[in-house]
Design goal:
The protein folds into two domains: about 50 residues, no CATH class; about 45 residues. About 75% of the residues lie in helices and about 0% in strands. The protein has four helices and no strands. By secondary structure, the protein is an all-alpha fold. It starts with a helix and ends in an 8-residue tail after the last helix. The longest helix has about 35 residues. The protein is flat. About 0% of the residues are buried. This is Fiber protein Fb15.
């Protein structure tokens, strides 16, 4: 939603006007205010309504974070298995290492 709004706002601008429009949005104060506004909206939507959704957000967020943290190790493991499989398929001596 926010991205769609942003795209619609910049669609009517000329290229020369774009830096002056985007620069204030990249300031530290603007980013802090946007983050706080997002937290306030989340609090209003989920916490004040006693919704169980924040529990799901924590659970699924934890699963995604765990997957992303473990992803490099999994990729190394599968690359190693693929290397062994190819070595065996070609009858290479590297398969014995």
């Amino acid at each position: 939603m926010a991205l769609r709004k942003f795209v619609n706002e910049i669609r009517g601008l000329k290229v020369k006007e774009l830096p002056n429009y985007i620069k204030p949005k990249l300031s530290l104060d603007y980013i802090k205010n946007s983050f706080n506004r997002g937290l306030d909206n989340y609090y209003t939507k989920y916490i004040e309504t006693s919704s169980p959704d924040p529990l799901y957000h924590v659970c699924f967020g934890g699963m995604v974070l765990s997957y992303l943290v473990n992803l490099p190790e999994e990729r190394r493991h599968y690359e190693h298995l693929e290397h062994e499989r190819l070595a065996k398929a070609h009858g290479s001596a590297a398969a014995h290492h």
